[in-house]
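Weekly structure sync, notes
Attendees: PL (lead), two postdocs, one rotation student
Agenda item 3: pending single-chain targets
PL asked that the sequence for the first pending target be pasted directly into the notes so everyone works from the same version. It is reproduced below exactly as submitted, 547 residues in total.
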Amino acid sequence: MFNNQYIQERIKKAETLRENGINPYPQNVKKDISSKEFLEKFSYIKEQDAEVKKDESVTATLTGRIKFIRIMGKAAFAKIEDSEGLVQIYYNRDDLPDGYYNNIVKKLFEVGDIIQVTGFPFVTQTGELTLHAKDIKIVTKAIHPLPEKFHGLTDQEIRYRQRYLDMIVNPEVKEIFKLRSKIVSIIRRFFEDNGFLEVETPMMHPIPGGANARPFVTHHNSLGVDRFLRVAPELYLKRLVVGGMEAVFEVNRNFRNEGMDHTHNPEFTMLEFYWAYHTYEDLIELTQKLFEKLFSELNLPTKMNYGDIEVDFSTPFRRVKWEDAIVEYSGIDRDKLRDKEALIEFIKSKGLEADSSLNIGKLQEVLFDEFVEKELINPTFLTHYPVDISPLARRNDQDPEIADRFEFFIAGKEIANGFNELNDPIDQYNRFKAQVEQKDSDDEAMHMDLDFVRALSYAMPPTAGEGIGIDRLVMMLTNQHSIRDVLLFPAMRPEKDLELSGELDSSDKPKCKKCGNDKEDELKPAKKGKGYFCIDVAACKKRASEK
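Predicted structure, written out during the meeting:
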C-alpha cells in the first residue's frame, strides 16, 4: 500500500531524517500550550504602542500539524493546527542551527507533518499574532499527503470511511462530535440527578427481543449455541425492575440487520430508561424537562433551523392522538379506522398497497407512514397507539384496542418511543404468541421469550419505559441530515484491497495547481510549500487556457 510515488518520496524524507540523527517518530513529546491558550495569553502584544510588536522576554512551545507552508527563500511562514485551532509560526535560516533550515526544515518538513515549535510571540504587519520560532522539531512524519488545498476533501464516501482524514481536513467536523459527547454527558447527569441508576445489560442475547427488528447472528464457540446481537435492551432492563431497581437507564449500542439510509445505521446508540410507579404521561413530562436541560446547558435557541424548515422547541410540546392525526392528515373518516375492509378500500383509493393479511394496526400504520409522519415538524408526542403494533405496551383501561404508548417526533422523524409497560404475564405471553404467528408474513415480528414471561410472573410493579435515539437527537441539534454525519465510523461497504491497490483516493491525488492535471507521471512537487505543477510547462499553459 506504499507504492504510490508521492508516498515513496515522503518515506525517503523520513529516512533522510534518520540519517541526520533525527527520529521522525519520537515518543517523549509533551504539549506546553494550546493554540487557543497562546492566542489568549499573548493577545496583549497586539495592544503595544510600538513599531514592532513583540515580547522576547517570554517563551512558548506549540505542537500541531502543519496545514500550510509559504517559503520565501531564507524565511517561511506556516500554520499549525491542534485540537483548539490554528496558529501561525514564522521561522528563518539565521535563527536556527547552521544548515538546519536549508537541509532539514525546508526540505523535509511538509504539510501534514506534526511538529513542535518553541519561540516568542510577535504580531505581523498584517496584525496576526504569530510565534517566532527559535527551535523546530519533528514530532510525527506524515507519509501520506493530505488532499490538495484547493480541492479539499469533498468525496462523501472517503469522508465517512476515513474519518481521521475528514477531521484533519475539515476541522468543523470535530465540533459536531464534541457536541455529541456533551449531549450524552448532559443526558447521563440529568438522569442521575433525577434518581436513576445507570446499568449495563448483555450485548449478546439468546433470543432477539425488545423490538420488532431483524437481528445479527453470531456463534458462541464454548457454549456451542447461536447468539443474537442486541436489538434492544428493554427486556433485560425490565427484569431489573422486577428485581427491585425502580429507576434504571442505559446508554447502549443496538444492532439491527436492516437497510441503511440517511436515518438508519445497522448499529446505533439509544438511551433507554424505566421508571416504576410512573406512567407514560410522567415520561412525557420528563422528556420535556430533558430537552429544556439540553437547550439550557448547550446554550441553544428554542427556534432552530433543520434544513429548510424551522423547528420550535418551546415547551410544552404538542400532544396528539394516533387516530386523530391519521384523520387530520389523510382525510379518512374516523368510523373507517377500525373497519378493516373500509380501511383497506381507503388505502387502495390513495394508490397504496394494502395487504389483507395485516391487522388493523398495521394497516393504519400504512396511512401514518404516508401522510402523518412528515407533517410532525415541531416536537410532537403522538399518543394512544393501536395494541396491534405495540406488543410490549400495556392496554388502555378504557379502550382495550389502544395501548398507553407515545412516540416523539421532531422534523418528521421519530426520536423516542415510550409506554406504560405490560406487566400482566398472561397478556404478555399471548401477545408473544400472536407475534410468533405473524413471522410468516413479518420477518421482524418478535420471538417468544419465556424467561421474560417468567420474570413478569414474579410481579413487576406498574412501570413506564422510554427509548430515545441519540443519533437522531444529535442530528436535530446539529442540523445534520445524514446519520453518517453524527457517527464517527458509520457502516460502509467493504473497501477494495488496500494492500494490492497502492493507490491514493481520488480526492487525495495530487493535481497541478494551474491546470488541474492529475496524471502523476506528468507532475512534480512544487519547490515552495505545498502543491504540484506540470513538468511540461507548455502543455500546462494550453490546458489552463482551454479550461
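Discussion points:
- Residues 172-193 form the longest helix (22 residues).
- The two ends are 33 Å apart (CA to CA).
Action: rotation student to compare against the earlier draft before next sync.
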